[in-house]
Amino acid sequence: MFVESKNQGLDHLEFDENSINHKISVMFDLLSELHGSEQLVLKAGKLNALDLMDSNKISERLTALARLVYDDPTINKEYTESEFDAVVNDLENNIAYMLAKHAVEKELEAKVAALMQERHQEYLQEIQAEVIKQELGADNAQTLKKYAELEMLEAKQLSASAVDLMRPSDLSQIVGQKNALTALLSKLSSPFPQHIIIYGPPGVGKTTAARLALDYAKTRPYTPFEEDAPFVEVDGTTLRWDPREITNPLLGSVHDPIYQGARRDLADGAIPEPKLGLVTKAHGGVLFIDEIGELDPLLQNKLLKVLEDKRVMFDSAYFDPDDPRVPKWIKKLFTDGAPADFILIGATTRDPTEINPALRSRCAEIFFEPLSEKDIEDIVAAAAQRLDINLDPQLCKMIAQYTIEGRQAVRLLADAYSAALFRGYEAGSSMTEVTITKEDLMAVINGARLMPMNYIKASSKFEVGRTFGLGVSGFLGSVLEIEAVAFPAAQADKGIVRFNDTAGSMAKDSVFNAASVFRLLTGEELNSYDLHVNIIGGGNIDGPSAGTAILLAIYSAVKQVPLPQDVAITGEISLQGKIKPVGGIPEKIYGAKRAGMRRVFIPADNLDAAANIDYGIEIVGVADVEELLEQLFSHTASEREVG
Asked: Residue 120: inside a domain, yes or no?
């Protein structure tokens, strides 16, 4: 009885499978009648459904049907047996709708044909009118009125913005980037110019330098750039494209008549029309992509292919090289591709590790430095001169205290200028000469809710268990305030070490390394103490560079040795007490300077990275902990003031 029941179940299952296969075959036949067999094959090839149509698996045949019905090549779902009936019903409903629509269209076409037959004379008159219109032109009273309105709008325009007026128009006007500009110009102004990626914080001149660099290169006789070499600029944050290559403004795309249509003379013959992209427009010149780090990763890979081939290839299932109706220029684009020999310059505020490694390997990398206070003051003074306004030098220093971006500094000046102009007009004073006061600037700063950028943490005092490490975030250095406190263990030889978890696992590892090095230096066990180490501010430290500073804080807390509060330290600590090199040295020194530090200790192996840095701060290289302690405690006890 059990076997019989089981066999009956299998027969029922086989019957359902045959039924579904039959329904699928019927639906394929209906689609073939609807589109025509040849067109259905073309469409299936376009949607990558040909192999699925010939499959023996119901799930794959349903996937092919779904792609054809919904016109979507991205459908890749594997349907389970429990879903077969629902999917088949849904497809049947959609095909029924398509057939009904087709029937209505045929009925309408028949009615249109009948009406055309009845109104043949009227259509002849309309054709005559159309011919006359073509002879006279496409314009009439309404279109000419619209054209006149556009011309009136063109005649009205606001004056250039203050930011545009104050933007550098020459490379010599870019402040604080001497080394970076030299590197940029030398790499571009060469018989063999290189692709370039510019890194740096916002508002330091990356985009302006890229715009002016090509003009500089054109003046050199040994560069390959001609006088009319194009400079094509695009913003990576707004550059959007379609993965199915329906549209791609960067590389170019093909307008297939079945999807997007084309020009009428091409659409009538179903001829695909290639649309050239920005890479071809930049041929022989420079393609500048601002914020290249925001570019879609897949699009970055496609851009790499173009950089290697110096050519963009087009493809379309509708292109027939033997079709005599295809224009020569379209045939050439499909057979040979479009030229795209250009130099890529990308600018980004992202870290180099966030950029596609393959793209980085093909580009020279240039780093723009953060602007110092003196740089900001020079930028503001030069902008005031271009605006032809009177400006107290003290106001330049005030602006430098509230921003480290050249763009924002200029914007603050422009806003203060507007405030002074408004104040003067309301007071009835002459508008021939505008003077910006401290009150005008403070009104702008307060209205923008700005806070001073310089948080002076350094002092001339000495404190126990408190020191300063250095970190980097977004090409800007910052000071890490590290403190430690030690107590005799609550239980003998069972001391504990506490550390704030928000600082991250790498910082916690640095604490344990520092504890081992402390024992190596002093011979003492930290389990005799209850030790608490804290990173003030609660930030996450993604790296080992705070290890040396943590060791100093622990050493000071346990030994009760006061530390100078105008010194910052960076470097990874090894278990042998060696101070290992770390990254971001220029940015860290910049952050130490803005925090008021007098001296910075860095790994000896990093001294080359600080060779060309002139921030007015003493830089000392140390190789191990013993050398650091000797340098740090070389001051006499009388010079130390315990805070």
From this structure: no
Residues 583 and 483 placed together within one structural domain of the fold: yes
Last residue of a domain, one of 447, 471, 495: 447
CATH number (domain holding residue 520): 3.30.230.10
The structure's pTM equals 0.66
202 is a domain residue: yes
Whether 426 and 545 map to the same domain: the answer is no
pLDDT of residue 264: 52
Distances (CA, A) of 625 to 64, 564, 607, 621: 69, 16, 17, 11
H or E element, residue 539? none
159 is catalytic: no
pLDDT tens string 514-535: 888 888 888 888 888 888 888 8
Alpha-carbon span 533 to 552, nearest angstrom? 11
Q: Which entry of 46, 187, 457, 588 is annotated as an active-site residue?
A: 588
Does one domain contain both 227 and 213?
Answer: yes
Residue 288 backbone dihedrals phi, psi, to 5 degrees: -105, 120
588 is an active site residue: yes
Return d(Cα 576, Cα 116) in angstroms, integer.
Answer: 96
Amino acid identity, position 248: N
The predicted pLDDT at position 497 comes to 83
Burial class (CB in 10 A: 0-12, 13-18, 19+), 198: buried
Are 297 and 325 part of one and the same domain? yes
Number of domains in the chain: 4
Backbone φ and ψ for 427, nearest 5 degrees, come out as -85, -5
Task: Express each pLDDT in 141-187 by its tens digit.
Answer: 777 788 788 888 877 776 666 666 777 778 888 888 888 899 999 99
The 3-state DSSP class for residue 238 equals coil
- Residues 146-157 as b/e (b if ≥16 CB within 10 A, e otherwise) read eeeeeeeeeeee
Do 466 and 607 belong to one domain?
yes
Q: Distance from CA of residue 334 to its chain's centroid?
A: 32
Residue 491 host element (H or E): none
What tokens appear for 423 in the block?
A: 């104040």
Judge whether 596 lies within some domain: yes
Contact (Cβ atoms closer than 8 angstroms) between residue 615 and residue 593: yes
pLDDT tens for residues 220-269? 889 999 888 899 888 888 777 666 555 666 776 665 655 544 455 555 55
541: left (phi over 0), alpha (psi -120 to 50) or beta: beta
Where a domain ends, among 80, 106, 132?
Answer: 106
618: β partners: 599
Q: Is residue 400 part of a domain?
A: yes
CA distance 265 to 163: 46
Q: Which helix (H) or strand (E) holds 593?
A: helix 585-594
CA–CA gap between residue 316 and residue 46 (Å, rounded)? 9
Which position among 206, 545, 556, 593 bears the catalytic label? 545
Contact 165, 386 (CB under 8 A): yes
Instruction: Look up tokens 């102004």; give the residue.
Output: 189
Range of the domain at 230: 177-367
Is 441 strand, coil or helix?
Answer: helix
| Tokens found for residue 259 | 């999807």
* Secondary element (H or E) of residue 576: none
Radius of gyration of the chain (CA): 36
